[in-house]
Amino acid sequence: MKKVAWFAHPWLSLLLAASWLLLQHTLAPFHLISAALIGLLVPRLLHNFLPAPRPMRFGPALRLFAVVLRDIVLSNITVARLVLGPMSRPQPAWMTVPLALSHPTAISLLASIITTTPGTVSCVVDEQRKHILVHALDCSDPAQMVADIKARYEAPLLAIFEHTPEHTGESR
């Protein structure tokens, strides 16, 4: 039988504990203990369903976070103008974004980033065909939007999760 470490998914444990404390709105000792237990027990109980943890590069992750945060703010303004504008004529579009990613967490994050950014939604993640079907509220150039998604989000995710020299600029 395979031995499972108690702290095999430290980021998940910390996220669960922090989420519990945020939901409780208190740092009372009971809730601190509850958060610690949830953070330790839930990943342990789910170990058969979770992928093996892999190291993550934090520099590219922080840069991606900044890009996504900026894009969300700017997209909110753009969508508000489009929706509230007196003479707006949106040009909705469907596009297929081919995937260079293979890591399941990276693919899920890309789909989540696309959906979180106002004005776009990832509708289908087809891992067999290696693409994501995306709908945009307003897009005059679908090919350019696909190129932007790949450059702004997928390339950093490749650098964060794939750890290959062609994606990170490193030599081995």
Task: Explain what this protein looks like in three dimensions.
Helix content is 56%, strand content 11%. It is mainly alpha-helical and 172 residues long. The protein has two domains: 1-53, no CATH class; 58-168, no CATH class. The chain has a three-stranded antiparallel β-sheet, with helices on one face. The protein is globular and about 55 Å long.
Compact overview of the structure:
By secondary structure, the chain is mainly alpha-helical. It has helices spanning 10-24, 29-45, 58-84, 104-116, 142-162, 165-168, and strands at 93-98, 120-126, 131-136.
Give the beta-strand count.
Answer: 3
The major beta sheet can be summarized as: 3 strands, antiparallel
**Distance separating the two termini:** 35 Å
* Portion in beta strands: 5-15%
Given as residue ranges, the uncertain stretches (5+ residues, pLDDT < 50) are 165-172
Query: What's the order of the H and E elements?
Result: HHHEHEEHH
Radius of gyration: 20 Å
* Biggest sheet: strand arrangement: 1-3-2
* Tally of helical segments: 6
Report the helical percentage. 55-70%
Report mean pLDDT, rounded to a whole number: 86
Number of domain modules: 2
Which structural class matches the secondary elements? mainly alpha
